[in-house]
Write a structure and sequence with these properties.
72% helix, globular, single chain, two-stranded antiparallel sheet, 1% strand, 311 residues, 2 strands, mainly alpha
Amino acid sequence: MAKTSDHQALAPPSPGAPRLTRVLAQPRALAILCVLVLAGLGWLYLGLMLGSAVRVGGFGPGMGFFDAVSTGRLDETGRALYQALCRPTFGSPHSGVPAAWGDFALVTLMWSAMTFAMMLPTAGPMVLAYAEIAETAAGKHERVVSPLVLTAGYVAVWLGFAVVATGLQWGLTRLALIDPALGSASALFSGAIFVGAGAYQFSALKHACVTVCQRPFPFFFANWSSAPDAVFRLGLRQGLYCLGCCWAMMLVMFAVGVMNVVWMAGLGIIMAVEKLASTTRFSRVIGVVFIVVGAVFVASSVVAHWPARAG
């Protein structure tokens, strides 16, 4: 393993260092703390946002979110927040350009919190794999880069996804495929998302990405570096593999309700199990289940619109 004197690398703490300093200098403890804090912040933000929505209950024309905050009117603030998240204006209907950047930022923040809540726990084994190798190197008095740098690269990829998902929500809202409560407005639309996500589970790209996610140790051994910029790029690469593995399942949230906490937790568990498995068999099973669920949605839509026979 290469050595570096870069100030961003972790050096073994001196025996007389404070207890907290010694704990934070241990890559494994730092990795666990990082994953727990980021995922916890995601769930906390989503919980607070949902609590605000429940207290407000309804939309109403009201004022803008930032106007409500500046005037200290809490009822309007909650209503404006809920309105911005569930019915973002994103500019005039004819401009095609998001003019309400405050609304866009709030929805992006919501998607960012969702990715933290759902994806950080699934990244735990990968970050811990890096931390285990780093801890071994640190025990040999080699300088290693903090797992925070690796995690920053991983998080950057999913923050980019949050921006894309916000734009997609804007488009789907304008096409009336998402209703004001952030749920799907069409069973046919929901069915298409499930079938598409299920079919992706059988693709070569999915299998290639999930295989790398399942085996982080060979990846890090083959690409190990003690340079912070290189470790950040490793985090980016791992984030891209994770995105290639999970993007289709994240889009399922458009079919079941963007703020459906039960599905958030369920999909998060599914994606975590996928990465802990040793084969792609579980991914194929999930693919079959998604396709069946999608077929049921499509069939229900066809039946609902089937012309009734004349009596």
